[in-house]
Amino acid sequence: MAGLKSLAKDTAIYGVSSIVGRFLNYLLVPLYTAKLSAASGGYGVITNMYSITALLLVILTYGMETGFFRFVNKKNEDPTIVYSTTLISVGVSSLLFILLCFVSLQPISTFLGYENNPDFVAMMAIVVALDSFQCIPFAYLRYKKRPIKFAAMKFLFIIPNILLNIFFFVCCPWLLVHFPASVSWFYNPSYGVGYAFVANVICTVIQQFAFYRELTGFKYKFKKSLWKEMMIYSFPILILGIAGILNQVVDKIIFPFLFTDQNEARVQLGIYGAASKVAMVMTMFTQAFRYAYEPFVFGKNKEEGSKKLYADAMKYFIIVSLIAYLGVMFYLDIFRYIIDKSYWDGLDCVSIVMLAAILNGIYFNLSFWYKLIDKTIWGAYFSGIGCFLIIILNVIFVPHYGYMACAWASLIGYAIVTILSYVVGQKKYPINYDMVRIGKYCLLTVVLYAISEFVKIDNILLRLCFKTILFSIFIAYIIKKDFPLKQIPIINRFVKK
């Protein structure tokens, strides 16, 4: 129980940077969708470019983040040498990536459909190279159990990024009208979506300088034998990482290639990307949990009763995920205002996207069995199968059904890899998950959501009140079964009375 309390504490702190940070970035969603109408396809450009950079980030870290955690916890390895070897490896590869992109900038831009804006590609190449390098100092902070510093570094990017976006998309247009001389020398209103990338580059560079303490104060050593071991361990993680991230973003990457009308593709992609942001609360929780869970698992692996901890962590992860799912779906009438009304047509995909995100989180929890027994190749198999299915389903159905096919393809792909990982994992590294209790929570979620959809109430206030009652039933069931009030400090005093 002490281990779970520690995990919960770290998850909460990491959640400050992940959940609160992404919530603050949510401020950019209404900003972008208001300033870049759905018909303009501007938000489609953002969705497409950030999906590509997400894939490149996985490639440029090539599993070394997880490899760092694995080897830094080995008793026969010097943590400083592991850290410096990892930094040098990722740093050199990131530098080579930037050089390659700038040498081949125009051909790459043309292939991606940005032949008129190669500067977009150049800026995002710089961002993804620096982000991949910064993954290692961030991993080092997690290893040193410094979640507060970790969160602070995240906010160092988030807050300036929000302010710069407000400056470029709100302040500059206003100043151009009322005080043109103040901004006309650098601001071009026709550049539009490009200023989102400008802000990103500036903030990423600022964050890089802020890692001064994590990048100095020790002697850089590159241990070749260690690096080879890490590469052997990390390569399968790279493969499964590529497949895993493709499961999340491949639809947004290949979407423009599935339409003959590129403008229509960017319009639909923008609507899908904006609507998916409403479902991002699930991704935020999963990410916060991941930051705390990865070092927790490797650190507890050799302790007695560790499998019981993993089983409990899975159960509580699913419980909180279902709370988030019902919370978003029951109050979608409120959450829809995150995006501009011109994007509301895409809200039908929110429930599907959230279910896919839940399955992704469950798959992440399950994935540790092959990491702990050094059989990461299994993850590559599972994710590869899921990725293949998602790509095939997108290619077949997107031209006919648009972005809704993207949502369903992701859900099916994650369902398959989750089932495969569970079945094989129970044979290779069996963990006694409380499937009965988990099944009851899932069934109750389905029933409550079905009731909310079946009962039609036109008045929005009455509809929200009715769904609040349904939500309260779910919370009450959780409290009764897994979070009894008498065990919660302070509250238990009132319950006993």
Low-pLDDT stretches: 487-495
- Strand % is under 5%
Give the count of structural domains. Answer: 1
Largest sheet: none
Sheet/helix structural class: mainly alpha
Distance between the termini: 26 Å
Order of helices and strands: HHHHHHHHHHHHHHHHHHHHHHH
Instruction: Name the average pLDDT.
Output: 83
Total DSSP E strands: 0
Task: Provide a brief overview of the structure.
It contains 23 helices and no strands. It is mostly helical. Helix 6 (105-112) crosses helix 7 (118-143).
Tell me what the structure shows.
The protein has 497 residues and is mostly helical. It has one domain (2-454). It is built from 23 helices and no strands. Helix 4 (64-72) runs antiparallel to helix 12 (224-254) and helix 15 (306-330) runs antiparallel to helix 22 (460-481). The radius of gyration is 23 Å and the shape is globular. It starts with a helix and ends with a helix.
Helix-strand layout with pairing:
Blueprint: H1 2-26, H2 28-35, H3 42-61, H4 64-72, H5 79-103, H6 105-112, H7 118-143, H8 147-178, H9 180-183, H10 194-210, H11 212-215, H12 224-254, H13 262-278, H14 280-300, H15 306-330, H16 332-335, H17 350-366, H18 368-372, H19 377-401, H20 403-428, H21 435-454, H22 460-481, H23 491-496
Could you list some keywords that capture this structure?
497 residues; 80% helix; disordered C terminus; mainly alpha; membrane
